[in-house]
Amino acid sequence: MTKHVFCRDLCLERGEPHEGTGNAPQRVLLLAWPRGKWRTPRWESADMSEALAGSIHAAAQKGLHVALVDRVGESDGLPQLMAQPEQVYADFESEAALIDAINDYADGKVFAGAHDPRITIIVCTDSRRDACCARYGFSTYKALVAIADPAKFHIVQATHIGGCRFAASLVVLPHRQRYGRMTAGQAPAFIEALSRGQIFLPAYKGRSDEPEPIQVAELAALKWAADNDAPASHVQLSHNGLPEVAKDGDELVFAAALGADRLSIRLRARTFHIQGNCGVVAEGGGSHEIRWCLDELSKAS
């Protein structure tokens, strides 16, 4: 029997950084569905009616991320539907009403429901999509649930959210923070950082809606501040213009201001062999892509 090769392990061996891949969906629906019934694609999951599947598929076609979610031992205790970033949740008297709520939300209308003020953490444990998400995601999910205060955190396991090669993959809502390569051992520090309203820098991917180089440079500045006990509530970046198309070896220099501190941050474009999930690895596929990587950071005199 051929030994399984995990895409996460290959990604680490190749030195590809997770920094710069922080984009997260602007709007998300969380639909309660038992993990054992998840399938790929998610609208073909077990026991899902044709009408409900069609609604989820149509929402996805409109660019809405609909995640199937579950909690170990608590499938019946989850609300049927939750909308983020609105933090609204509801149960419905009929499937028709649930479908209407999904359709309306896909069209920009939020359904009526209660407000959940807690921080929501979705952890990809989708074994149907990728073995790394099952192997690393589920252990991280269990560690988070074991230590987090349920009065402050709503933690669920979820279907594919992207970034299998950076498993465990997480999204924190409504803040739209994406994290990668999270481990069970990091769970206490991660929860502690979120409890203080801070970013957990070791696994943070970068700020959503910003180009990759800006995400990488900003995160490098934040890590420098943390390592040097410097205040860093806000990073101001300046540069001479981002290239539309990067080539291997290209350089990009940022000037960063963190309060009174001034940094010079140099990034370099590097080509990596990308195999986004274990299925691609098994098939021998993949592509070569340019990633912006931190090359040098120095404090200006």
Give the uncertain stretches in residue-range form.
Answer: none
Q: Total strand count, please? A: 13
Strand content: 25-35%
Structural class: alpha+beta
Please report the first level of CATH classification, the CATH class of the largest domain.
Alpha Beta
**CATH architectural category of the largest domain:** 3-Layer(aba) Sandwich
Can you list the strand order of the major beta sheet? 5-4-3-1-2-7-6-8-9
> What are the secondary-structure elements, in order, as H or E?
HEHEEEHEEHEEEHHEEEHE
Query: Radius of gyration from the CA trace?
Result: 20 Å
Shape: globular
What is the helix content? 25-40%
Structure in a nutshell:
With 301 residues, the protein is of the alpha+beta class. It has helices spanning 7-13, 50-61, 95-106, 131-147, 187-195, 212-227, 278-283; strands at 28-32, 65-70, 81-84, 88-90, 114-115, 119-124, 153-158, 170-173, 177-179, 236-238, 251-258, 261-274, 287-299.
Architecture blueprint of SSEs:
Blueprint: H1 7-13, E1 28-32, H2 50-61, E2 65-70, E3 81-84, E4 88-90, H3 95-106, E5 114-115, E6 119-124, H4 131-147, E7 153-158, E8 170-173, E9 177-179, H5 187-195, H6 212-227, E10 236-238, E11 251-258, E12 261-274, H7 278-283, E13 287-299
Parallel strand pairs: 1-2, 6-7
Antiparallel strand pairs: 1-3, 2-7, 3-4, 4-5, 6-8, 8-9, 10-11, 11-12, 12-13
Helix pairs in contact: 2-3
Protein architecture, described:
This protein has two domains: 23-203, Glutaredoxin (3-Layer(aba) Sandwich); 212-299, no CATH class. The chain is 26% helix and 26% strand. It has seven helices and 13 strands. The strands form two sheets. A nine-stranded mixed sheet has the order 5-4-3-1-2-7-6-8-9. It has a four-stranded antiparallel sheet with strand order 10-11-12-13, with helices on one face. Helix 2 runs parallel beside helix 3 (95-106).
